[in-house]
Amino acid sequence: MFGSKDATPQASWKRVDDDFVLGACSRRLFGYLSRDAEGVWTAFDDDARSVAVSPDLPEAKAALWDDHGSVHAGECEPPVGKWWHRPIRGARERLVVTSR
To answer: What is the mean pLDDT of each run of 10 residues along the chain (100 residues)?
Structure first.
């Protein structure tokens, strides 16, 4: 779900309950879907704004993913080929022993 090194835009879906589904890309949660008592799904973005309403779960998921797609390339995909975006490895301290 998170931390994937694959830059291919892909959504992951986690069904938390019968009426609640979380959506995530490789870097973050981008929204959720909630089903009301009538069985209608409402898609919400990561700021809890309603994005789409549909009786069909796959259609609601697609609408939420399409909404996130407009910002995914700029915010979630890592820049490719830039040396300053590589992970920083922790520096090991070296113990210097001097004799007196």
So the answer is: 54 94 88 96 94 96 89 68 53 53
Count other C-beta atoms under 10 Å from residue 2's C-beta: 10
Question: How far apart (Å, rounded) are the C-alpha atoms in residues 13 and 79?
Answer: 24
Question: Other CB atoms closer than 10 Å to residue 49's CB: what's the count?
Answer: 10
Asked whether the whole model's pTM tops 0.70, one would answer: no
| CA dist., res. 43 & res. 62, Å (int) | 9
Pairing of strands 29-35, 50-54: unpaired
Task: Tell me the sheet residues that pair with 13.
Answer: 23
Return the domain boundaries, the chain.
Answer: 12-74
Note the maximum CA span of the chain: 82
